[in-house]
Amino acid sequence: MFLIAGLGNPGAKYQANRHNIGFMAADEIASRWRFGPERAKFQSVIREGEVDTANGPVKVLLMKPQTYMNESGRAVGEAARFYKIKPQDVIVFHDEIDLAPGRFRMKAGGGAAGQNGIRSIISQIGADFRRGRMGVGHPGEKELVMPHVLGDFHKAEQPWLQALLQACADALPFALGGDDERYQGEVLRLAPAPKFSPRQAARGEG
């Protein structure tokens, strides 16, 4: 079994925030593949389902922690321990300010790079889990980072956002088959990132 966690903050006021792109990815995966209804467990909203891969269907626990971003590890750790899921079989989708809007990187292991949800998960299950880093751009100044990630996506950002979410869901069998490099390449092929700088995107230009 794989555990896929999308990170975000619970509640309607955060729903369209850049910080909630992980929740959006989880919702897109649930609608693309065979998943049951949402229910509450592991301090999360979870769905159980299957994704077809080249080696046959793979069981997946899909979760959106309801602990707020900074405590995401409590939920992910609880589920991983319950099902005895190895960190290598945990994939976490989250916003990444150090990537330009629409860019995507798969990464296994490493530090948190300032992402508090990732830091929380590392504290619970170690660093060896895999991260789907979804670029939302950097506002250019450190003091603007929090309002940037807690701000909603602009209307002009919707085309690349929807393309990225769909690509992450459509290409998922490669990640579940263990080929993160192929997965990253397929996501970028299906959803080429727009040609603008992160700072332009943060100001809603372009």
Provide a descriptive summary of the structure in words.
- There is one protein chain.
- The model is unreliable at 200-206 (pLDDT under 50).
- The chain has a single domain (2-202), classed as Peptidyl-tRNA hydrolase (Rossmann fold).
- It is an alpha/beta fold.
- The longest helix has 13 residues, at 158-170.
- It has helices spanning 21-32, 72-83, 116-125, 145-149, 158-170, 172-176, 180-190, 198-202; strands spanning 2-6, 34-35, 39-41, 44-53, 56-65, 90-96, 104-108, 130-135.
- Helix 5 packs antiparallel against helix 7 (180-190).
- Strands 1, 2, 3, 4, 5, 6, 7 and 8 form an eight-stranded mixed sheet that branches.
- The termini are far apart.
- It contains eight helices and eight strands.
- A hairpin with a 2-residue loop joins strand 3 (39-41) and strand 4 (44-53).
Q: How far is the first residue's CA from the last residue's CA? A: 42 Å
From the alpha-carbon coordinates, what is the Rg to the nearest angstrom? 16 Å
Count of discrete structural domains = 1
Which structural class best describes the helix and strand composition? Answer: alpha/beta
Find the CATH topology.
Answer: Rossmann fold
